[in-house]
Write a structure and sequence with these properties.
The complex is a heterodimer of chains A (165) and B (189). Chain A has 165 residues and is mainly α. Chain A has helices at residues 3-28, 32-49, 59-77, 87-93, 105-117, 123-131, 136-143, 147-164. Helices cover 72% and strands 0% of the residues of chain A. The N and C termini of chain A lie far apart (46 Å). Chain B has one domain (18-186). Chain B contains six helices and no strands. Classes of the chains: A mainly alpha (165), B mainly alpha (189).
């Protein structure tokens, strides 16, 4: 594919999924400067990937895969990255206040971001895909997890979020 | 109860990444690869230069041969680094399924830790051992009593062995942790 075609495909993907990519970068990286770099890297990875996009999966699946894999590499490369928990471990260790303690949307958002950063992959990725309102089928395709495993995880995520927010 | 999905999706987004930014980053990416390779070769050339000088100036055939073996080991390691780097290069954009990508990264790191012993540490050992033997039998620091010189060589060898042993132990422990994470992921497939 020539660069113009690559630019064109990237442009369409960025226009459609740009806000979701920014939300992903915000959830993964707390530091504003690092976050900007991560977002730039996600867009760059997406642009590079467009040279290989062959339409065998939907553009949505492709974009989320590239973006989440780039974010996962960022987390893995981060120095002194805390060891995350699975959603099951988080449920057991949950000692945070309930929804009555949340003062407003901003506080809820901050608490959610901290929660996602405390999860390990692929649970953090599942939570983010769920928050983007992707169906279980789409999440299964993006993650390559079995339908049963996705259903179990989503159920736990829903229960956990309902209790906390 | 807060509708957390609405809160999530309606948060204000403000960052913009332009196509010009992307093209600039592509150019920087190419430059970084070029300078990264150049640095790797420069370090190897310096190491080969130092051990080449040892072959030339140090007395005793053991020390000379040991230095030459270290040079051969450096070339072997360089070849291994290039080979393994290519073998594990991910496809453009890494559009693998998230679990596959995560598993592949864990396997790559586990295998690197498990095999580093055989291609990163072991090749250097014959040369280093021969150099130490050369120091022990054929070459002593002028003006220093032989017994003291032997003690220093032995101490150096023990410290080196302890460092290598500790590094190996840490590698084995981390590889074990990675294997447990891989096993957990396999249950999701």
């Amino acid at each position: 594919m020539d660069t113009a075609g690559q630019d064109d495909r990237y442009g369409r993907a960025a226009a459609e999924f740009g806000p979701a990519l920014e939300r992903l970068a915000r959830a993964v990286e707390a530091d504003p400067s690092e976050r900007r770099d991560l977002l730039q890297n996600i867009h760059f990875a997406l642009w590079r990937s467009m040279a290989a996009f062959d339409g065998r999966c939907s553009l949505r699946t492709w974009v989320y895969r590239v973006a989440h894999n780039t974010a996962a590499s960022h987390v893995a490369a981060r120095r002194r990255a805390p060891k995350g928990m699975s959603i099951e471990e988080l449920e057991l260790a949950d000692d945070q206040p309930g929804p009555e303690e949340i003062a407003g949307d901003n506080q809820a958002l901050e608490r959610l971001m901290a929660l996602i950063r405390g999860l390990k992959a692929p649970d953090s990725q599942l939570m983010l895909l769920y928050l983007e309102e992707l169906s279980a089928g789409e999440i299964g395709e993006i993650t390559n997890m079995s339908a049963g495993a996705v259903a179990t995880k989503i159920h736990r995520i829903k229960t956990f979020l309902a209790r906390r927010f | 109860m807060t509708n957390i999905i609405t809160v999530w999706k309606t948060q204000k987004t403000e960052e913009t990444v332009t196509l010009e930014n992307i093209h600039d980053q592509a150019a920087r990416f190419q430059r970084r690869i070029y300078w990264g390779n150049a640095l790797e070769y420069a370090v190897s050339v310096v190491c080969v230069g130092i051990f080449g000088l040892y072959v030339w100036v140090l007395p005793g055939w053991m020390t000379k041969l040991g230095s030459a073996l270290v040079i051969v080991a450096i070339f072997f390691i360089m070849w291994q680094l290039a080979r393994r780097g290519k073998a594990h290069a991910l496809p453009e954009g890494s559009a693998l399924g998230l679990v596959d990508f995560h598993r592949r990264e864990l396997v790559r790191r586990r295998d690197l830790l498990r095999s580093a012993w055989s291609w990163y540490i072991l090749p250097v050992m014959p040369g280093v051992v021969l150099m130490l033997l050369g120091r022990w039998y054929q070459f002593h620091v002028p003006g220093r009593p032989v017994n003291l010189d032997h003690l220093i060589i032995a101490l150096g060898a023990v410290i080196a062995l302890l460092i290598v042993g500790t590094v190996r132990l840490v590698q084995v422990l981390i590889a074990g942790q990675l294997q447990r994470s891989i096993d957990e992921l396999d249950k999701l497939g």
